[in-house]
């Protein structure tokens, strides 16, 4: 606690006997200049922090984090629940015209079955949250409401199976006189594939002249993961 005692001030006179106008208080300690130590420390800390933040900003600007496959997939494509299971692989196509393939040749029951395994999967339930990203109204189109599953989701399918189905119809049409397709629905092979593959393919120059080399490099989603996703969720499978 501070003492309340005050020493009586002393008045000093000049040589003429006149009292000076100032007073000397002998109890008052000598005045000290305020310490700037903590002020300097705070300034240095703020300066160091500013330099650190500036350095991090420059680092992030010139060395940005690379986007993952999933981030690129969602940024460059229309929304789809299948994106969650997408996994890419690098594939060298083995696609020359004269090379055998399990999907080439004249139609047989075995060949038809292989093609069907590529695309014949049922629809699935899609939450309403996907309607806006798909540019669809919640009320349906042309006065028709969306078909619903028992759980209330929108009934949906995957375009990849639809496109492969159309491609299969084109294949079947070319062999329509060699196989009985009378139990299949009417052909509607006028659909267009909208995914433009811009991968360059080269040409060879040999005894047969200039020939295309379709064994090009591609980065493809693993198709078996897409099929597995569809199998686990398919509903309303129609049997021909």
Automatic annotation (TrEMBL):
Transmembrane segment boundaries: 41-62
Pathway(s) of this molecule: Mycotoxin biosynthesis
InterPro entries: UstYa-like
Keywords: Membrane, Transmembrane, Transmembrane helix
Pfam families the UniProt entry points to: UstYa (PF11807)
GO biological process, one term: mycotoxin biosynthetic process
Lineage top rank: taxon: Eukaryota
Family: Belongs to the ustYa family.
Family matches, as PANTHER family: CYCLOCHLOROTINE BIOSYNTHESIS PROTEIN O (PTHR33365:SF4), YALI0B05434P (PTHR33365)
Record's protein name: Tat pathway signal sequence
Source organism of the structure: Colletotrichum incanum (Soybean anthracnose fungus)
């Amino acid at each position: 606690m501070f003492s309340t005692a005050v020493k009586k001030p002393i008045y000093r006179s000049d040589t003429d006997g006149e009292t000076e106008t100032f007073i000397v208080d002998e109890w008052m300690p000598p005045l000290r200049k305020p310490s700037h130590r903590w002020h300097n420390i705070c300034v240095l800390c703020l300066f160091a922090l500013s330099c650190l933040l500036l350095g991090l900003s420059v680092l992030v600007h010139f060395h940005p984090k690379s986007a993952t496959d999933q981030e690129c997939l969602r940024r460059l494509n229309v929304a789809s629940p299948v994106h969650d299971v997408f996994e890419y692989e690098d594939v060298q196509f083995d696609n020359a015209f004269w090379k055998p393939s399990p999907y080439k040749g004249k139609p047989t029951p075995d060949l038809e079955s292989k093609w069907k395994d590529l695309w014949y999967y049922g629809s699935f339930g899609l939450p309403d949250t996907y309607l806006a990203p798909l540019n669809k109204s919640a009320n349906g189109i042309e006065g028709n409401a969306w078909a619903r599953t028992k759980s209330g989701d929108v009934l949906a399918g995957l375009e990849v199976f639809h496109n492969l189905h159309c491609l299969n119809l084109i294949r079947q049409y070319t062999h329509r006189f060699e196989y009985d397709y009378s139990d299949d629905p009417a052909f509607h092979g006028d659909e267009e594939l909208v995914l433009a593959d811009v991968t360059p393919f080269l040409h060879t120059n040999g005894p047969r002249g200039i020939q295309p080399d379709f064994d090009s490099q591609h980065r493809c989603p693993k198709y078996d993961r897409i099929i597995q996703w569809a199998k686990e969720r398919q509903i309303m499978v129609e049997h021909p």
